[in-house]
């Protein structure tokens, strides 16, 4: 064991001098920096090697290409020319940049431990060795054990050896720990389902992507040129300028985009939509900072049209920049509220809201949301939070559906929301509206019938349910008359209203379609037998 | 018994080292310990006397040489530096609380002027440090860098990097408020 450790130690330390060979330093110093006097230049180089570049932090200023390193090199040379000696120069820089600028830390109160560590390690090591020796000597002359000279060696090593269990047990425990940690790591981070993607097999794919990108660029270039020509031909046409702005934006020609938008804005005499587009372009040009001009435009836009989505988004961004996260959240929350469900910007707004919420320390769960996914998440939230979130969502949704009752998916979503809220009557109502709106959707009709059947467990409203089921049944039959599920529901609801004849007919035609030996067929036959004649 | 203790000594030492390393690593990962943040040599010392040509008035000079009526801030910026744009809103808020002297670091005067026109000018005076000499005196290693200086000319705080909404509310505003409270006591 000790030998192995010694070997590793020597191995690592022998390699250290070669490190410089492996990573050859860049030649940062340039000819014009050098001093004319070779002796002074040598001094300057020597000093540079002792000073740390504060930008790169692990290079000397002699090695570094950073701007600051260049300045510091010039500073060192200026001080040499001014007649300062090495000590003074180092002290000077240390005063401004601290101990950190010296690659070799000075001996001082705060660095005592650093410098003393090797000596301490030596002392502790020597102490341990001495301790071990003394123990060996004291245990050597075993008083009451007669020893044969030939056996002395064995006896010694026996006495010296530690309790037999310790080392193997500790190595064993260590091994198990490593194995457990590795498997945990693998289970959490390992993704065995990802196939290997060696580069050699992907050359075709890569060239294809590159080709597609090239083609897209060419197309964009062409669009841009056409737009430019059009804007020159019709300098009074706002649309031409807007298409030019769009085409320039796609090619990353920011200055031209801004010019085109300004022209369009001027021509339109201050149209709010163009104003907000200009604000957005300005923000993009400033790497996402909402600069004062953009803020001004946003404010003007919102004054004229407080529901302008682009301006709302940007004003949220500006608030976030100012550190007003709650304000940004409110602004964006309002934007989500007034946006159509399928608005293309919703995903981006939500992502930004997540960020703002994180910064403000607000839980993202309490954010208003409308998607099915959030509904599924809501099922796992605490009952109170969930109810509150869904209630506000439901209110917005039902309001929108009153305006647009033909939205079948909307009714379905509303129905599911009521189910989560445990309001079965409203849920059923919404399902019926969904059935009405989506009259051509067989799966939807079957879904509605399933829910009606489940609701029919309650004896009191049984008759009412059976009646309500007639409309979806009729719609489903109109789509596909002999669908087995529809035949089953037809029989079921006919029996509920007491129409035994129809029930029998329905189920019998279903029975013909089922494999005669199947479990379903057996159950159905039993039900048929139970029908009173 | 004594034997087994010495026998386990290396293991115990190793365990202690491992725990220290783990704590340091956790602190780094959680962002509590910032390895890129350098200690400043100037904190607690008098400001380096600085005299620079003014950006706004070609004839005048901006002088920073110690005592003033109230605490003030010195902010190194440049038009070519993106984080400087990012901290413009924070500086605008701070300008209402404290006097800020700007130093345009390695920048062309016309660029600095355009920068101030675009992003707002929070400074009471702006000095030009075209060669970066003043930057060397102050120990600046990258813009933006901000110093808070007491009324008697001692550097109290140094902040490297942009002032964002977070450290504006968590560090700067509380610190300046406490400075003002101290001054009123006197």
CATH superfamily assignment of the largest domain in chain B? Glutaredoxin
Total domain count of chain B: 2
Spans where pLDDT lies below 50 across 5 or more residues of chain B = none
Low-confidence stretches of chain A: 12-26, 145-159, 363-370
CATH topology of the largest domain in chain B: Glutaredoxin
Tally of helical runs of chain B:
6
Radius of gyration of chain A from the CA trace? 40 Å
Q: Report the C-alpha radius of gyration of chain B, rounded.
A: 22 Å
What is the global morphology of chain B? elongated
CATH architecture of the domain at 439-533 in chain A: Alpha Horseshoe
Separation of termini of chain B?
64 Å
List its salient traits.
heterodimer, A: 533 residues, mainly alpha, Helicase, Ruva Protein, domain 3, Serine Threonine Protein Phosphatase 5, Tetratricopeptide repeat, 70% helix, 0% strand, extended, B: 186 residues, alpha/beta, Glutaredoxin, two-stranded antiparallel ribbon, 6 helices, 7 strands, 20% strand
Description:
The complex is a heterodimer of chains A (533) and B (186). Chain A has 533 residues and is an all-alpha fold. Among the domains of chain A are: 84 residues, Cytochrome C biogenesis protein (Helicase, Ruva Protein, domain 3, Orthogonal Bundle), CATH 1.10.8; 70 residues, Serine Threonine Protein Phosphatase 5, Tetratricopeptide repeat; 95 residues, Tetratricopeptide repeat domain (Serine Threonine Protein Phosphatase 5, Tetratricopeptide repeat), CATH 1.25.40.10. Chain A has 25 helices and no strands. In chain A, α10 runs antiparallel to α11. Chain A is extended and about 115 Å long. Chain B has 186 residues and is an alpha/beta fold. Chain B has two domains: 35 residues; 136 residues, Glutaredoxin, CATH 3.40.30. Chain B is built from six helices and seven strands, in the order αβββααβαβαββα. In chain B, the strands form two sheets. A five-stranded mixed sheet of chain B has the order 5-4-3-6-7. The termini of chain B are far apart. In chain B, 35% of the residues are buried. Chains A and B meet through α4, α5 and α6 of A and α1, α2, α3, α5 and α6 of B.
């Amino acid at each position: 064991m000790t030998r192995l450790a010694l070997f590793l130690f020597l191995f690592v330390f022998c390699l250290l001098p070669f490190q410089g060979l492996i990573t050859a330093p860049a030649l940062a110093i340039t000819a014009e920096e050098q001093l004319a006097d070779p002796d002074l230049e040598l001094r300057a180089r020597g000093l540079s090697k002792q000073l740390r570049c504060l930008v790169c932090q692990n290079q000397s200023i002699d090695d570094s290409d950073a701007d600051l390193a260049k300045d510091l090199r010039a500073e060192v040379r200026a001080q040499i020319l001014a007649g300062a000696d090495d000590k003074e120069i180092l002290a000077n820089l240390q005063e401004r940049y601290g101990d950190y600028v010296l690659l070799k830390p000075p001996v001082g109160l705060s660095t005592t431990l650093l410098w003393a560590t090797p000596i301490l390690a030596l002392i502790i090591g020597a102490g341990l060795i001495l301790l071990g020796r003394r123990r060996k000597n004291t245990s050597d002359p075993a008083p009451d054990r007669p020893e044969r000279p030939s056996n002395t060696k064995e006896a010694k090593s026996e006495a010296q050896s530690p309790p037999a269990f310790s080392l193997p047990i500790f190595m064993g425990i260590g091994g198990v720990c490593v194995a457990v940690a590795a498997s945990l790591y693998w289970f959490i981070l390992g993704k065995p389902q990802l196939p290997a993607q060696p580069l050699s097999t992907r050359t075709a794919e890569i060239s294809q992507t590159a080709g597609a990108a090239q083609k897209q660029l060419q197309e964009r270039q062409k669009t841009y040129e056409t737009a430019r020509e059009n804007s020159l031909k019709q300098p009074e046409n706002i649309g031409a300028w807007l298409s030019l702005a769009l085409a320039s934006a796609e090619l990353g020609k920011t200055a031209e985009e801004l010019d085109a938008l300004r022209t369009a804005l001027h021509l339109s005499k201050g149209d709010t939509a163009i104003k907000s587009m200009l604000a957005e372009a300005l923000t993009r040009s400033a790497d996402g900072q909402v600069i004062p001009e953009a803020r001004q435009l946003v404010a003007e836009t919102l004054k004229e049209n407080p529901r302008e989505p682009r301006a709302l988004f940007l004003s949220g961004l500006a608030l976030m920049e100012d550190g007003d996260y709650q304000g940004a959240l409110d602004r964006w929350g309002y934007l989500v509220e007034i946006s159509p469900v399928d608005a293309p910007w919703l995903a981006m707004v939500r992502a930004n809201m997540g960020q703002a919420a994180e910064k403000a320390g607000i839980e993202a769960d309490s954010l208003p949301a409308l998607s099915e996914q959030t509904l599924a998440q809501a099922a796992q939230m605490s009952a109170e939070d969930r109810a509150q979130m869904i209630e506000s969502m439901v209110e917005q949704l039902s309001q929108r559906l009153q305006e647009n009752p033909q939205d079948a998916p909307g009714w379905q979503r509303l129905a599911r929301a009521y189910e989560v809220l445990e309001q079965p009557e409203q849920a059923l109502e919404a399902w019926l509206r969904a059935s009405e709106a989506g009259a051509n959707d067989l799966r939807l009709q079957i879904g509605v019938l399933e829910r009606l059947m489940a609701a029919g467990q309650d004896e009191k409203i049984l008759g009412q349910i059976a009646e309500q089921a007639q409309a979806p049944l009729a719609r489903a039959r109109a789509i596909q008359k002999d669908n087995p599920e529809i035949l089953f529901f037809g029989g079921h609801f006919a029996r509920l209203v007491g129409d035994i004849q129809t029930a029998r007919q329905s189920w019998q035609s279903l029975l013909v379609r089922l494999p005669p030996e199947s479990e379903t067929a057996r159950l159905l036959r039993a039900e048929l037998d139970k029908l009173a004649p | 018994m004594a034997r087994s203790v010495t026998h386990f000594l290396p293991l115990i030492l190793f365990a202690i080292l491992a725990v220290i390393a783990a704590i340091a690593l956790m602190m780094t990962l959680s962002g509590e310990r910032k390895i890129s943040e350098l200690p400043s040599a100037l904190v607690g010392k008098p400001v380096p006397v600085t005299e620079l040509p003014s950006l706004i008035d070609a004839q005048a000079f901006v002088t920073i040489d110690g005592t003033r009526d109230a605490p003030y801030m010195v902010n190194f910026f440049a038009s070519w530096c993106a984080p400087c744009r990012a901290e413009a809103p924070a500086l605008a808020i701070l300008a209402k609380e404290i006097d800020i002297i700007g130093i345009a670091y390695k920048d062309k005067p016309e660029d600095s002027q355009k920068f101030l026109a675009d992003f707002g000018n929070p400074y009471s005076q702006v000095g030009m440090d075209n060669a970066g000499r003043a930057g060397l005196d102050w120990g600046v290693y990258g813009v933006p860098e901000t110093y808070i200086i007491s009324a008697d000319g001692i550097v109290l705080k140094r902040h490297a990097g942009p002032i964002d909404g977070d450290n504006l509310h968590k560090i700067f505003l509380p610190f300046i408020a406490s400075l003002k409270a101290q001054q009123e006591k006197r």
